[in-house]
Amino acid sequence: MSTSTSTSTQATKPILFISATGGIALATLRRCLASSNSFNQPNQPINHPSLTITVLARSPSRLQFLLTPTELSSPSLRIIQGNAHSPSDLVPLLTHPSDPTTLVDIVITSIGGKPDLKKLGIDDPHVCETGARALLSALDQVRRAASLHVPPNNPASVVCGNSTSSSREVEEARRKHKPYIITLSAAGASTVHRDYPLPLYPLYALLLRKPLKDKRAMENVFVESDEKTRWTVVRPSMLTDGPEIGLEKVRIGVEDLQSKKLEGDKVVGYTISREDTGVWIFERLVVGDDGEKYLGKALTITY
Fold it and tell me: Which Gene Ontology molecular function entries are recorded, alphabetically (predicted)?
């Protein structure tokens, strides 16, 4: 079954964005809204599932400023003010809007810090790691509130409340209570290979050293978590504000974060636009069929 297939019994696929004011997440959000708006229009060809979209935003007004009136008026969208580092803010957003016994299908997290040139880093050197820990804590709290326990490694049974389900029901319970997490990291975060050209080494080694340390820590939080491989890390090259030029121009390098080994050819690149990165995430991971093969992987995405 594809990761992009709805993991709930509802007709819609619920998605939670943790921050969406950055260029990549904003581009993905806009494609999700366009897909949902098409779904709600009569006589429109439907190429994607209907999406229910929740955005956790520290400053909703900033996101509202970035979206068009049509996007803001979408019945599929709700924007909730909150702190991505607060599990209590995340907990109520992780359940399906129409079925509190089921979690959202997809979580897209794209939090990051503000550049601090004086410190050659960012204002919060642990912003991504802290956000990852908050998300996992919130997921644990939601499951505990529902009295659900899903054993992490090839379980023989699932205990739900006071009853024990057979092993055949494990995967269904796992899908319902382990959403697919897409988290944004960055090229240069790999400890296995260099995925940026050598001329950029001074930039990555000096100016980006502290932010990349935080990205690696965030990735390790997911690798070491009970979520195991229900996540994909996206590592874009240096980002540009250029227009969308087409997914056929996008190259993907794959690293297995469990075994710390490359899969296939090494991919090295200078840049990619925020638009193409966001579109790729939408087309390949949110509504496409590539999510399944990228579970537990880190993806270098570049031109």
Answer: biliverdin reductase [NAD(P)H] activity; riboflavin reductase (NADPH) activity
- Structure tokens that stand for 177 in this block: 């209570």
> Is residue 3 within 8 Å of residue 39, measured between CB atoms?
no
CA dist 50 and 38 (Å) reads 9
What residue ranges in 65-196 does DSSP mark as E strands?
77-81, 95-96, 99-103, 106-109, 115-116, 121-122, 148-149, 158-160, 163-165, 180-184
Q: Where are the domains of the chain?
A: 13-293
Q: In whole angstroms, give the CA distance from residue 60 to residue 31.
A: 19
* Cα–Cα dist 267/113, whole Å: 27
Q: Block means of pLDDT (10 residues each) for the chain, length 303 residues?
A: 39 91 95 81 60 96 96 96 98 90 94 77 90 97 74 42 48 69 98 97 93 97 86 97 96 96 96 98 94 95 98
| pLDDT of res. 122 | 82
The Cα-based distances of 57 to 112, 132, 137, 214, 245 in angstroms read 13, 16, 19, 21, 29
For residues 177 and 184, the answer to whether their CB atoms sit within 8 Å is no
User: Both tokens of residue 175?
Assistant: 């899908």
Structure tokens at 28: 């993905």
Q: Cα torsion at 156, 181, 186, 195 (round to 10°)?
A: 50
Question: How would you classify the pairing of strands 77-81 and 51-57?
Answer: parallel
- Phi/psi of residue 7, nearest 5 degrees: -95, 10
